[in-house]
Amino acid sequence: MMRYSAFSVFLQGLTGNKGWASAWGSPTPKSHYDVIIVGGGGHGLSTAYYLAKTFGFRNVAVLEKGYVGSGNVGRNTTIIRSNYLLPGNNPFYELSLKLWEGLEQDFNFNAMVSQRGVLNLYHSDGQRDDYARRGNAMRLHGVDAELLDREQVRKMVPFMDFDNARFPIQGGLLQRRGGTVRHDAVAWGYARGAASRGVDVIQHCEVTGIKRDGYRVIGVETSRGFIGCDKLALATAGNSSVVADLAGIRLPIESHVLQAFVSEGLKPFIDTVVTFGVGHFYISQSDKGGLVFGGDIDGYNSYAQRGNLAMVEHVAEAGVSMIPALARVRTLRSWGGIMDMSMDGSPIIDRTHLDNLYLNAGWCYGGFKATPASGYCFAHLIARNEPQETARAFRLDRFERGYAIDERGAGPMPNLH
Q1: Are 48 and 34 in contact (CB under 8 A)?
Q2: Residue among 187, 221, 209, 229 nearest 36 (CA)
Q3: pLDDT by residue (tens digit) across 50-109?
Q4: Predicted TM-score of the model (pTM)
Q5: How far apart are CA 237 and CA 43, in angstroms?
Q6: Residues β-bridged to residue 62
Q7: At what angle do helices 183-195 and 371-384 cross, to 10 degrees?
């Protein structure tokens, strides 16, 4: 594999950029693999990368029904953070943030990791106390957190409506190590890193059936024929229910659309990530100048990668309430990701009742930021048949056992998480 560096860029510039090798190939599927990973998004590719790099698996295939990056990993608002309250979530997302911090050096690809900070606004005394509790929980786990007052927030983001009649801004909870990452570069970097270690990244190969022999999976039927395997891992995000159903498994998740938007290019405007404390609205600015923002899921079950106008209006109202200047900004485009919403708003990384079938699902709003830790922990589970310590709480049977990880306190309502 060609190693990227400033020297290689300079050298290729002298030769007309004719010497760049493909980041990954287009292999023909083998008849059998040690591990097949269904889903060529961020979680599937990162799992393959860590299986090869950390656990020594080489005979691995990633099957993607579309092209690499065509799913949720390329359809999100690029935010990374670890500002979680509950013990099950906080250590896991902190592990992910630490992996983000060294990711570009690890897989030798520029993912544009930008630790510009994540600021959550609060608008009442009760919300301030709630954020203080969360910040204290973060610091007890060794995670950075700062509770800012009104004037400290004003110095960071002076263009917001601090005196809004309904939602005055009183302060915010800041995690300086949070930020953004270039989403498609994450998919490309992991695909390239996995392929360089012998993994077959097979695009346009849809899984249409899962073949079993009793309680054991023996392979998958695909649009390119049958492929056998010793172990099968599912990492298909919003399509998890559909794919799991092929193995006769009904999952405790629902699929919902989450829209995101980008504006016309502007001069530098927002140098951090800001979230509204009243409506679910979050915004940052990309390196190309566009404002990237989003809000709630659309609320109804869907497998479509597009939403409806009611949520567009909701997001616009929240954005203008927080930053009045947004009313003069034109939105260029929107897109939708299919969110696998679990019953408690937290993910599932676990074995199933089938001996060699593994599940990675239920990521709700947390899928992109979890990509490195999800891949590492899922690879650990596949390789050693036991959960990685940080992901031990994300068991599939926790709903039956009464050990829900309900960060929002919304109860068993997927559309509310």
Answers
A1: no
A2: 229
A3: 999 999 999 999 999 999 999 999 999 999 999 999 999 999 999 999 999 999 999 999
A4: 0.96
A5: 9
A6: 37, 201
A7: 30
Q: Could you give the CA distance from residue 141 to residue 94 in angstroms, rounded to a whole number?
A: 9
Digit-coded pLDDT (tens) for 209-249: 999 999 999 999 999 999 999 999 999 999 999 999 999 99
State the CB neighbour count (10 A cutoff) for residue 80.
27
Strand 179-180 relative to strand 331-342: parallel, antiparallel, unpaired? unpaired
**Percent of the chain scored above 90 by pLDDT?**
89
Pairing of strands 290-301, 331-342: unpaired
Spatial distance between the Cα atoms of 88 and 86, rounded to a whole number of angstroms: 6
Mean pLDDT of the 167-189 span: 97
| pLDDT (tens digit per residue) in 3-22 | 889 889 889 899 898 888 88
Q: How far apart are CA 132 and CA 221, in angstroms?
A: 51
**Of the candidates 245, 284, 53, which has an alpha carbon nearest to the alpha carbon of residue 157?**
284
Q: Are 71 and 369 in contact (CB under 8 A)?
A: no
Orientation angle between helical segments 90-101 and 371-384, nearest 10 degrees: 110
410 confidence band (pLDDT: 50, 70, 90): confident
**Residue 222 forms beta bridges with which residues?**
207, 225
Cα 41 from Cα 293, distance rounded (Å) = 21
Cα atoms in the Cβ-side hemisphere of radius 13 Å centred on 125: 0
Query: Strands 282-285 and 290-301: what pairing?
Result: antiparallel
The confidence score (pLDDT) of residue 122 equals 97
Dihedral (C-alpha) 383, 389, 391, 392: value to the nearest 10 degrees? 100
Residue 228: partners with Cβ closer than 8 Å, 6 or more residues away:
31, 32, 33, 218, 219
Cβ neighbour number for residue 156 with a 10 Å cutoff: 16
CA 67/CA 75 separation, integer angstroms: 13
Whole-angstrom Cα distance, residue 4 to residue 86? 39
State how far the Cα of 117 lies from the Cα of 139, in Å rounded to an integer. 16
pLDDT at 307: 87
175 membership: H or E segment, kind and range: strand 171-175
- Enumerate the β-bridge partners of residue 60: 35
Q: pLDDT value at position 412? A: 87
**Structural tokens at position 217:** 């999976």
| Residue 193 structure tokens | 């890193």
Phi, then psi, of 92 in degrees rounded to 5: -65, -50
| 275: its two tokens | 């979230």
